[in-house]
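Q: Structure for this?
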Amino acid sequence: MNMILPASVSATPNGTTRPQVRIVIVGHVDHGKSTLVGRLLHETGSLPEGKLEMLKAVSARRGMPFEWSFLLDALQTERDQGITIDTTQIRFRTRSRDVVLIDAPGHAEFLRNMITGASQADGAVLIIDALEGVRDQTRRHGYLLHLLGIKQVAIVVNKMDRVDFSADRFKEISDEISAHLTGLGVTPSAVIPISARDGDGVAEHTARIGWYQGPTVVEALDALEPARPLEQLALRLPVQAIYKFDDRRIVAGRIESGHLSAGDEIVIMPAGKIAKIKTVESWPVTPLKGSHGAGRSVGITLDRELFIERGDVIAHAGATPRDTRRIRARIFWLHDKPLSKGDQILIRLGTRETRASVVAIEKAVDPGELSNEETRAIARNHVGEIDISLAQPIAADPYQENSRTGRLVIEVNGRIAGGGLVLSVDAGQRAVPIDIVPVESALRPEERSARYRHNGAVIWLTGLPGSGKSTLARALERRLFSRGGSPILLDGDTLRAGLNGDLGFSAQDRTENIRRLAEVATHLARNGHIAVVAAVSPSADDRAAARRIADNSFREIYVATPAEVCETRDPKGHYAKARAGTLQAFTGIGNDYQPPAQAELRIDTSARTVSDATDEIERMLAETGILFDELVDLAANI
Amino acid sequence: MHLLNPDSAKDRLRGADIKNGSAVPQIFPDGRLPPPSMDHLDELEAQSIYILREAFARLKKLALLWSLGKDSNVMIWLARKAFFGRVPFPALHVDTGKKFAEMYAFRDRFGKEWDLDLKVEPCPPIDAVDPTLPPAARSAARKTEGLKWALTKYGFDGLIAGIRRDEEATRAKERVFSPRGLEGGWDVRDQPPEFWDQFNASVPQGAHLRVHPILHWTEADIWAYTKRENIPIIPLYLSKNGKRYRSLGDQDITNPVESTASNIDEILAELDGTKVPERAGRALDHETEDAFERLRVAGYL
């Protein structure tokens, strides 16, 4: 049923210059939010013709007294229960602006909907029942306004008729809520005594609240300013996608802050690659000239081809976001199951998504009560601070520096379960300063691919000592080279003699050893070579880290030769030494090797020839897009 | 005066450094912020483009529902802007077979001119639809059934639809990314949270997601943008013999409203003064108190 006015007033015929401000009405359930909204619509002459009469008729038919809130509570389910379930938006005009009112449900059950509504607002009206005073949901909503980054808040003390318009009662409530909000860093712009049902203080001062000299609700709404795009801050352009619809390679995204122009030197974070903006593309007119500021959805082309993907953030050199794998955030939690230390979650920050785990929880609390701090878990509708460790590096800012790239949401099972502000970003994972300027190769990967007839790749051979990794790696190297490719062998032991000479065999050193191998191999792969890595790499976590570094160029081959066969081979004499007790921390004798669960290929060298195994690897590389398939052409020549 | 020219200043120092390096707040002559560089329509457009690109990035098989009306024409225009000229997914017209001749002519012409991958899908006969619905709603529900057929046929996991919050109360409660059940139904009581332009895009196997890129627009926004961008419209929206259509649906359940507005400027002027709802001419909205909500819960747009 059509119960809401479509007062179509946002765009005016002579232009679109009237400011539009979006205001959310929040507060405890039954404190009168929907009533205030209904009354505001009536007072500002925004109701459609016949609507009031029709609603009164509906009320009469249902045998209940007319309520202003019926205007909003349009859904059948809501009228039956008498509460607002979901957020609703409604528009009207004041003297100076267009107002979009967002009515958010006050019931604790529907906090997710309150957040959905409030997150879209420029300012908020927090409503409090004069009789009941500040309640848990009042405090909770106040706290969430702070977490949602809403700074402009007007307080309305409603139902003053129920306390005989007592100035003392008003002051009591006003003091309590002002203290609460100020403690959160939110200063109320006004505290207004009203009776929404009767209209006192909504659009006009009445004799019954003659002791009050401040603004009416309509005047207070008039004073709230629309939020502005962050043009004054440094450039942040989170990449949404790369489009290749024609011969242009367009990097698309929305400028969250700052501005950009063709010719700007940019850095692509978190990788730190540099490039120059060649053009700013558009449609139907393209390319565009001039500067493009925060809020614009743009498409740019770069002066060189480099690996860039959804989730990267484009910034100007010298003013980049941090790259990090560790974030501290203050969050609200909406999921039924409490968020606990050690939980695996999905983080969305800008357009980046990454898996993450909760390392620590602090200051978990019910914002309605603000007592009983917890450090084990954050319960539903509670808030808290968390440390999270990210599976991939991301680009982020603390929210005090940039509110758009300083906030994140948390997803559980494909559904948004919470969100919050980035308090700090630990850039300590990277030893180098953030303003390093990596130089890109003069050659594009495609140029090399065309010559080598393969894409870059990291072939990771893992398995017990003596399983045949080096033998297979050498055979594969020869095979690839003889077909014109560019394979490069990275043997674990060989690298330990030089690059990794500072590392021993502790778990930590092994992890670092694998990380360096993966970084070097990935660098080669990005430049079109096939890095063939032969390393025991016993830890599944370390190999997973290597896969993340190499990303989709990673091909894992589990050389699954039985342990007893490996020991009989013992090409380096290690098994013998370990059995004799002269070699410590040797993988093979113990059961500290963690076999891969999802390797691209599994080869048992005890059951087949080297040449046969190499054929199989070659086939896998062709099938997974590394080697360019020329078999058909060769067959045609025969 | 060249020192105050931001372009020449940029040659000497990086712009971003200047702005961030200064601890002194910028002061403007009248103590106010400078005028915004984007107007209201620019902001609406940028937001819609962002949503369309998110949908294209996060869903596997998208289609855009093209009802041929003013809203979905704006939506196609926005999609062309988002993807630099060509809509990279099919435009799906679920055809009740009862649209106005002018609408079919429009579809045939602009489907080609805009280079759309047009898919026209028929609706089932009226007998196949819930007989307890009032007549007009029952007729409109055919479209919901037709939509289900199309979903099954193509396996879309995302449908882009041109609904707006200001059209109707239940639509005001919609999410931008709105999950649908296996039967296409809308569980209004259990909508996921959606904030900060982060959208819930995970679709269970066999279900789909509705994407609403112009949810935040109003009827007047649509007209103002149509005029600014010079987007073609069906002439039925303009006054003829003192009447025009504000909203176009099936011929038998859509009525014109009294109007003398014969061009978009006049439409905007008329909207500025009116208190009559946009869908006043759509019979199905007014049959019973909850008919429209029942339609939407079942998967109607």
